[in-house]
Write a structure and sequence with these properties.
single chain; 286 residues; alpha/beta; Rossmann fold; N-(1-d-carboxylethyl)-l-norvaline Dehydrogenase, domain 2; 2 domains; 12 helices; 9 strands; 52% helix; binds NADP nicotinamide-adenine-dinucleotide phosphate
Amino acid sequence: MEIGFIGIGVMGHAIVSHLQNAGHTLHVYNRTKAKADDLVARGAIWQETPQKVAAASEIIFTMVGYPTDVEEVYYGPVGIFQSDVSGKTLVDLTTSTPSLAEKIATTAKEKGAVSLDAPVSGGDLGAKNATLTIMVGGEEETFNQLCPLFEIIGKRYTLHGGPGKGQHTKMANQIMIAGTMTGMTEMLVYSKAAGLNQPKVIETLAGGSASNWSMENYGPRILKADYSPGFFVKHFIKDLKIALDEAEKMELDLPATRLAKELYEKLADKGFENEGTQALIKLWWD
Ligand code: NAP
């Protein structure tokens, strides 16, 4: 199958590799071309613009950074919608806003195409190991058609309703992660101050009701002083802002999520916005 992929970052690079390994022809584009070099060396076809990716592909995936990047690759002067997309399927894997997902679905329909919002969870390791959880919004028929591709890159993929519902589900996920990241960080700060053996504490907690993904994946990285992304601080702030905006629209107050956003903004203000989210511990440890 001719598959387009726009956004060859931490996540996109790994996902493209899996699609290539499954025998598909990949048409790729990224703002920084060099990040696609090794994929091109393995047979992916470099296209000069998102418009050209769309022209060459039956299914077009996007996985860029922010909603503004999504706007640009779909609606920009050399964007996907500048191409004739009739009969094609557009799948945005970026964590973006529900309203933009709805807008893309409407434009796609006007142009005879279909679209899904399909943000993911599972981190850089989930992408590398093809074990992502994929949260999908869109039409059931389109979702069913995409399942064989989701199967290649993920281990759990679920339709949550019409356009935007995948992004809403991802926001629910990020609200949960806000709690696990701040909880893990304060747990490490406390256990160190108490003079405990921290690897042993992590191992023990993982067997009880405090067990969670953030601790098991990021706890050991913190103890090795590995703050590489992973999942960028700047992207988590973006996600928490979207979650809080959406909550406000529903007249909900989420004080713990708001506090997590403030802590991550403080971390970014200290110059750590391009580190992984596990760097939150730097607010306590030098
Ligand atoms: P990333 O490494 O920054 O990758 C994003 C890629 O998109 C970059 O290579 C970037 O180009 C490219 N890009 C951005 N705007 C573009 C544009 N207008 N045109 C073409 N290319 C563009 O980030 P990531 O970690 O892969 O995350 C991607 C998305 O997935 C984000 O929305 C993030 O919140 C979400 N996500 C990430 C994780 C994770 O653990 N990393 C987990 C779940 C969801 P450059 O190379 O020039 O920067």
